[in-house]
């Protein structure tokens, strides 16, 4: 397998005196979709935030494209090409879809074709139909897609998506799945934190199972699908 794009070892994090991540270790390879799955409160969001430097880690060894992330502030991590879409949809509600996309624009790395609004509208056809609409007139699912599209405007090599299917209508969940597959086809690696097992299983190549802040499994999605006992114990599915 190719050299990992993102590599995390022994990540530990606490809120006050309560430790919530214990030696979390995983790798994300270029062009793959990996699901970080686990029950409510297992530590998925904290893992993504700690990778991005938004939660301070008591121990962290992380590299992205060979650069150490250990002491970098969040904006520098993002500039290396690691995009992050939090659960709470960071869009500008007073701006239109097109204006929101412009706020995310950054130059693409050498040899890569940059994301443009037109390319993103092919990925998210429903955003194309509302390009002049303001964020505050969009549904939660539409805002979620805009948040992802805006992050792609920064031309990341990989993107961390926190629960993209949460609280959105089933028809939009399907569009979201197609968009994630298309992102992968365009060469963007995706680390997806998810509680929606069916959604994660349908689009991911590999999976990490996190339970009470510890990684219990890392392997192919096919392997995890076959391990009914582990799924029942750690995910309840
Ligand atoms: N700001 C905070 N202060 C204190 N404890 C927190 C904070 N955020 C999360 N926690 C706790 O840390 C643990 C891990 O939470 P985290 O949000 O990372 O889990 P999760 O797997 O993403 O769950 P969810 O799907 O509910 O977001 C939980 O026990 C949670 O209660």
UniProtKB/TrEMBL annotation:
GO function term, MF aspect, one: ATP binding
Keywords for this protein: Amino-acid transport, ATP-binding, Nucleotide-binding, Transport
SMART domains: AAA
Pfam families named among the record's database cross-references: ABC_tran
Domain ABC transporter as annotated: residue spans: 6-237
Domain of life: Bacteria
Coiled coil: none
Database matches in InterPro entries: AAA+_ATPase (IPR003593), ABC_transporter-like_ATP-bd (IPR003439), ABC_transporter-like_CS (IPR017871), BCAA_Transport_ATP-bd_LivF (IPR052156), P-loop_NTPase (IPR027417)
Claim: 4Fe-4S is one of the keywords in the record: no
CDD domains: ABC_TM1139_LivF_branched
RNA-binding listed as a keyword: no
Gene3D superfamilies, A to Z: P-loop containing nucleotide triphosphate hydrolases
Similarity section: Belongs to the ABC transporter superfamily.
Name of this chain's protein: ABC transporter ATP-binding protein
The species this protein was found in: Microvirga terrae
């Amino acid at each position: 397998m190719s050299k990992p794009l993102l590599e995390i070892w022994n990540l530990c994090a606490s809120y006050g005196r309560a430790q919530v991540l214990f030696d979390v270790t995983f790798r994300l390879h270029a062009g793959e979709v990996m699901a970080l799955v686990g029950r409510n409160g297992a530590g998925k969001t904290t893992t993504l935030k700690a990778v991005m430097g938004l939660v301070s880690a008591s121990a962290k060894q992380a590299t992205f494209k060979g650069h150490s992330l250990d002491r970098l502030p969040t904006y520098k991590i993002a500039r290396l090409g690691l995009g992050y879409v939090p659960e709470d949809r960071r869009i500008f509600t007073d701006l239109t879809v097109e204006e929101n996309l412009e706020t995310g624009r950054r130059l693409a790395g050498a040899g890569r074709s940059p994301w443009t609004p037109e390319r993103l509208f092919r990925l998210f056809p429903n955003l194309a139909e509302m390009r002049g609409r303001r964020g505050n007139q969009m549904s939660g699912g539409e805002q979620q897609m805009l948040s992802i599209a805006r992050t792609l405007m920064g031309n990341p090599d990989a993107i961390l998506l926190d629960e993209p299917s949460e609280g959105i209508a089933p028809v939009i969940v399907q569009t979201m799945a197609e968009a994630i597959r298309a992102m992968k086809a365009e060469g963007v690696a995706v680390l997806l934190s998810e509680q929606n097992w069916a959604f994660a299983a349908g689009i991911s190549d590999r999976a990490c199972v996190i339970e009470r802040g510890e990684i219990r499994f890392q392997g192919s999605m096919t392997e995890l699908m076959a391990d009914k006992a582990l799924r029942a114990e750690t995910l309840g599915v």
